[in-house]
């Protein structure tokens, strides 16, 4: 009896469709955990990079020097530093080109930073919809397997004259395992999707705040330059 109710035993006794449901849910669980680990590393690295760059930015370093440092490792910068690089590059280009008016320079600079912001947020949110999909559909896939398994159990039960609990239990158990596997795949996906979404939102707010502060600094620089003239 114990051998029949073991997971492996119930899996092999299940119908082909229920086996496919179980294998599908197992595959979805593996994929979601792989994405969870990968996204956790990416978001942690983005947080660390932003903190380090922000400390460097507010340390009083000259902006031109900071820009040269970022430019020297252009292929490795991301997030907040990439926003700074894009904004300062456009700012310097517009000033060199003799853009008319302070508003024109700042508008072009802010647009350049908005593009970098969108690119950074897209990178952070990459694959999060997959976690949301796994979290939302896994219980229904598992429920489908359960319904199908219970239906087959009752069909088989109707073909015998005398039904016993021992005859019904394995079929019901193998059907319920599909629901359990659906929840096993869905719960971590939902938890980490919400967690990662919150962290991405906080990073995006930090990026936007930095853009506003950086814009204010550049705006002040232009005003000083015009006052000196």
Write a short abstract of this structure.
With about 230 residues, the chain is mostly helical. The chain is built from eight helices and no strands. The protein has one domain.
Can you characterise this structure?
The protein has 229 residues and is mainly alpha-helical. It has one domain. It contains 8 helices and no strands. Helix 3 packs antiparallel against helix 7, helix 5 runs antiparallel to helix 6 and helix 7 runs antiparallel to helix 8. The radius of gyration is 29 Å and the shape is rod-shaped. The Tol-Pal system is composed of five core proteins: the inner membrane proteins TolA, TolQ and TolR, the periplasmic protein TolB and the outer membrane protein Pal. They form a network linking the inner and outer membranes and the peptidoglycan layer. InterPro entries: ExbB/TolQ_transport (IPR050790), MotA_ExbB_proton_chnl (IPR002898), Tol-Pal_TolQ (IPR014163). Part of the Tol-Pal system, which plays a role in outer membrane invagination during cell division and is important for maintaining outer membrane integrity.
- Give helix % range: over 70%
* Total helical elements: 8
Mean pLDDT: 86
Low-confidence stretches: none
Distance between the termini: 93 Å
Structural Rg: 29 Å
- Count the beta strands: 0
Q: Largest sheet, described in full?
A: none
Structural class: mainly alpha
Strand content: under 5%
How many domains, in number, for the residues?
A: 1
Summarize the helix and strand pattern as letters: HHHHHHHH
**Which word captures the global form?**
rod-shaped
